[in-house]
Amino acid sequence: MKKIFTLFLNLAGLGIFSLLAQENTENNSGQITGNFQTDAQYYIEDQSIGATAVKEYMLVNSWANFIYSNQNFSAGFRYEGYMNTLLGYPNSGGINDGIGIPFRWAMFSKDDLEITVGNFYEQFGNGLVLRSYEEKMLGVDNALDGFRIKYQLFKGINLTGLIAKQRYYWNHGPGIIRGFDGTIQINEVFQSLEESSLRLNIGGSFVSKFQHEGHPLYNLPDNVAAMSGRIMIRYKNFDINSEYAYKFNDPSLDNSYIFKPGQALLINTSYAKKGLGIVLSTKWVDNMAFRSDRNASLTDLNINQLPEITKNHIYVLPAFYPYATQPNGEWGAKAEIMYKIPKNTLLGGKYGTNVSLNYSRAHDIKKTQINDSTPVFPPASGTYGYNTKFFSIGDKLYFQDINFEISKKWSKKILSNFSYVYLIYNYDVLRGITGHGNVYAHIGIVDMTYKFENSSALKTEIQHMFTKQDEGSWVLGMIEYSLPGWFFTVFDNWNYGNPESKKHYYSIGFGHISGGTRIQLSYGKQRAGVMCIGGVCRNVPASNGVFVSISSTF
Amino acid sequence: MNKIILSLSLVIFALSMFAQDVPAVQLKDLNGKTVNTKSIINNNGKPVLISFFATWCKPCIKELNAFNENYDDWKEETGVRIIAISTDNSRSSNSVGPFVKSKGWEFDVYLDENGDFKRAMNVGEVPHTFLLDGKGKIVWQHKTYLDGDENKTFDVIKKVSKGQPIK
Questions:
Q1: Which pLDDT tens digit goes with each residue over A489-519?
Q2: Chain A residues inside the 8 Å CB shell of B160
């Protein structure tokens, strides 16, 4: 295997050189591009924070993409290696450990037709019935493997059809996914409307999964269909974007094998003009988990993705308590105002000042008993489960976030960012445990940057979180010095309010960047918690040790 | 193992000698209209700067703010066109338009909701910036943003607009 791989690489290298020789003449020999990343951690045991060492001493996640493209044809693959998988990534029983090529594809496109065979990612609408994607930092990859055809029937009318199985670590999930999506952009279809200030797009999706499983008790449906319709209307500065999805009965581990159909509604509205943006959103979800294996859990084999509408916090302390969509039932709403106080005003100063206010809230939905003898929770397997009224809002609060942010540039040299965040986090629901209760947290953040003449800069961050629940209050200080191509950071996150023992989580690190290549080395401690990107979360264990990351795009 | 490393470096070295084309991928503009990447990178023989960002990425916003403040001067001196590609998924993609307007950014912004363009350009994390020469070839790229990086970016744009070598 190794010999073959080396041979392949040598051939590839030689091939490219021979192509280079031809480059001065007319070059139709195509191009190869790619990227590479390796993340390695050396683990040190540290009982004070609950960090463990590993038998291997060091764990490494690596991958590289290669894409060959030549006019209408392109093909590629991703070589991945987990030797062994970093702690905290999905790897139950070592299922993710190993090396191989789990992702390979070829695509041909000509005029209005595009055909993909092998692996691909796809999203229909907002993803309520189908979203296949990859998020390396979370270890999520629900890539499809099969066939996809995209066809532009007419200018403004696009159709997509696919049939595929889903990646499940180094194998495939048991289900077969069939999907069809159509979009019509009215202003493109009718030329007379091309410049109209009223814009209208409509679309619809149909997704069906097949999974045959002889069940001893229930007559489970082999085929489960889900469908959605969506509309986007834009008039001048106003915009409405909405999607409704319906899923036929789909007994699964997620919903405790009940036979109730699922529904979801998402409405986003906005108003935007120069210097001002307003967003109002709401969503309602009932029983909409949709996987290509009804017995799968966690981040495995999701066919759809139900997006959160809460703010995605990036500063460390507010990200301690992230929200995640509850597919078995939730209502949510968000209001956001972003405003730039104009230049040369009292509050705007010389450069203008950006302010934003964001409020979001999530509740359960109202569920009632189907009969006197069947409880709503836990749902009774093999029954309809419960009744619910469309868009009903329950009394139980899942999450609330009020945050306010001011970004101000004082001069060419001084930039600052001030934030205040107040979170209410239903720990029991969002972490799937009982008896912990809500966390109420107030967080203040001051982020200052001083730019020197020679393109170097000093950045400092002070964050404080006040809470009486969970691990108590925290204070975080960070200093980063950067000069072209280099950065050096020191930070300490002090859990001074911890009733059991006050803990320091310090870290020191540096990095080097050159063009498309980045190298980072750090030593320090990381708190156990939840890390979320793009609406999906994973548990990160406490760790202490040396972390190295190297990535390059070529 | 050494053989593999040697071979891999041979491949990468060989690859790095190419000036690459921008792949053809469908994006959405902020009006919800589908556009092809090939059609948005035309700048009449002048350089184009493509910057991948997300509304939740602080360094990305700092970088694009810095670009925006200098955009008029840069355009005047080099004719460069800046294009920002939002990698926000459907959690925040509906907020990108209002976000961009509220910042007052003057350059065009496109949505790459499921990361098709990001993957085709081999972008791992944002921000990641590419510079195209007047012929639409990728001649320079830069990962991450550190305060002050815009000075280097502008130096490179100036060289490319004059047809000078970058290094």
A1: 999 999 999 998 999 999 999 999 999 999 9
A2: none
Terminal C-alpha separation, chain B: 33
Backbone angles phi, psi at B109, to 5 degrees: -125, 135
Helix orientation angle between B149-161 and B58-78, rounded to the nearest 10 degrees: 30
CB A261, CB A285: distance < 8 Å: no
C-alpha A240/C-alpha A256 separation (Å) is: 35
Q: Pairing between strand B81-86 and B48-53?
A: parallel
Q: How many CA atoms lie within 13 A of B43 on its CB side?
A: 24
Task: Tell me if B12 and A554 make a contact (CB, 8 A cut-off).
Answer: yes
Q: How do the domains of chain B map onto residue ranges? A: 20-161
Q: What is the mean pLDDT of chain A?
A: 92
Location of structure tokens 């993340």: A39
- CATH number of the CATH domain containing A268: 2.40.160
Q: Is A217 inside any structural domain?
A: yes
The alpha-carbon gap from A265 to the nearest alpha carbon of chain B, in Å, equals: 13
Q: Residue A485 — left, alpha, or beta (φ > 0 → left; ψ -120 to 50 → alpha)?
A: left
Distance of alpha carbon A509 from alpha carbon A480, whole angstroms:
9
Q: How far apart are CA A507 and CA A521, in angstroms?
A: 11
Integer Cα distance of B145 and B158 in angstroms: 19
- Name the amino acid, one letter, at B136: G
Q: Do A234 and B152 touch (CB under 8 A)?
A: no
Q: Would the CB atoms of B147 and A16 count as touching at under 8 Å?
A: no
What is the ipTM, given to two decimal places? Answer: 0.92
Is the pTM higher than 0.90? The answer reads: yes
**What domain count does chain A have?**
1
Residue A144: inside a domain, yes or no?
yes
